[in-house]
Write a structure and sequence with these properties.
Blueprint: H1 2-7, H2 12-34, H3 36-48, H4 53-62, H5 68-82, H6 85-109, H7 130-149, H8 153-176, H9 182-206
Helix pairs in contact: 2-9, 4-8, 5-6, 6-7, 6-9, 7-8, 7-9, 8-9
Length: about 210
């Protein structure tokens, strides 16, 4: 373990990757100053005013983009396009570990869902948001692959932008359907971001040696 941590080097680019974490941390500090319950309730109340049949139908599809079926489809897509089952296994491992980590935290915190705002049925504890965490793990991994494997700049920028918007939209959908508080979603995004960041730091050093990903 010590050898792994010793060989995983951090550079100036790593500071840029950590900026989103800093941004979310600042937001969480502001929320703490205002009051968690007050801020969470205000955000859900404001989003509830946006409810419409069209938006509900659209977000019903998007919120499933970090479900088990979405993960399976992404893994199959990677296997078909990249033609390398090893990379798919790495991604499956990231999702599996991230899911277990999420469950552990849920059962430690045991926060109930915002029942007064829920417009769809959802079971389990609320904190942190699993959909938000898994979306950034799943699509964050794809963003990394796009940056490393795609040569055409316009295509790379397009895919990275699309995947980034998808991550944020999945997170928003959890608030829209009232199944999570704002702090649940922010915690899920932060947890997923830090996890996939460290996971990739290790993977690209030890797991991608023979896969053409540096």
């Amino acid at each position: 373990m010590k050898n792994i941590l010793k060989d995983v080097q951090f550079n100036k680019k790593d500071i840029l990757f950590l900026l989103p974490v800093l941004g979310i941390t600042i937001i969480l500090v502001i929320i703490l100053c205002i009051g968690i319950e007050k801020c969470d309730t205000y955000v859900l109340s404001a989003i509830a005013k946006l409810h419409s049949d069209i938006l509900t139908n659209i977000l019903s599809v998007i919120t499933q983009m970090s479900s088990v079926w979405a993960v399976v489809l992404v893994l199959l897509f990677l296997y078909i396009i990249i033609k390398d089952k090893i990379i798919s296994i790495y991604l499956a491992g990231a999702v599996a570990i991230g899911s277990i980590l999420n469950l552990i935290i849920k059962y430690i915190v045991r926060r109930t869902r915002p029942l007064d705002f829920m417009i769809i049925s959802e079971s389990g504890y609320s904190f942190p948001s699993a959909h938000s965490e898994l979306s950034i793990i799943l699509y964050g991994f794809l963003i990394y692959l796009c940056c490393k494997l795609i040569k055409k700049k316009w295509l790379k920028v397009t895919l990275v932008s699309f995947l980034s918007v998808l991550i944020l939209t999945v997170a928003f959908s959890r608030l829209y359907f009232g199944v999570h508080y704002l702090t649940d979603v922010l915690a899920g995004l932060t947890l997923g971001y830090i996890f996939i960041y460290l996971y990739i730091k290790i993977c690209k050093k030890y797991m991608f040696k023979n896969e053409g990903v540096k």
